[in-house]
Amino acid sequence: MKILYICTHNRCRSILSEAITNHLSGGKIVARSAGSQPAGEVHPLSLKYLSEAGIPVKGLQSQSWDELEGFAPDVVITVCDSAAGESCPLWLGSTVKVHWGLSDPSKLAGTEVELASAFRQTMDEIGRRVEQLLSIDVNPDDSAALKSALAELGAQ
């Protein structure tokens, strides 16, 4: 299964989701991330806390969804509320689309301890959802069942 995570700026939550999904899925899922208005760089704390958790960061980049036109995802998951309300590019066609709202740790101001805690909480949430995703028994070709199962994971 191929998943495209979308967040408007593609610098934190979608990057974390891409990296964690690829790490935990062991090749069962190929995840990429993109944004409608990419920041052009990955948030440095995203890289720091992924590395700290032993999750590879090589190749992670903030990029436009236009750069992934050839990726052909089975599923598009928006992870920020503003991206959830945007119109996806036409090339995504009838791809299953769901929303997994996640808190944005990069927008918080606080101590290093508070920021670390916020990033780790978001990463833990993504990890839980990916573990649950790996356990669902749904045929990826059954769009309605896949959308329903994925939406349930995002609502938890």
List the helices and strands and how they pair.
Elements lengths: L1 E5 L6 H13 L4 E5 L9 H9 L22 E4 L2 H4 L11 E4 L12 H24 L7 H13 L1
Parallel strand pairs: 1-2, 1-3, 3-4
Helix pairs in contact: 1-4, 2-4
In short:
The chain has 156 residues and is α/β, with parallel strands linked by helices. Helices cover 40% and strands 12% of the residues.
What does this structure look like?
It contains five helices and four strands. The model has no long low-confidence stretch (mean pLDDT 86). The radius of gyration is 15 Å and the shape is globular. The chain is an alpha/beta fold and 156 residues long. It has one domain: Response regulator (Rossmann fold). The protein has helices at residues 13-25, 44-52, 81-84, 112-135, 143-155; strands at 2-6, 30-34, 75-78, 96-99. α1 (13-25) crosses α4 and α2 (44-52) packs across α4. A four-stranded parallel sheet has the order 2-1-3-4.
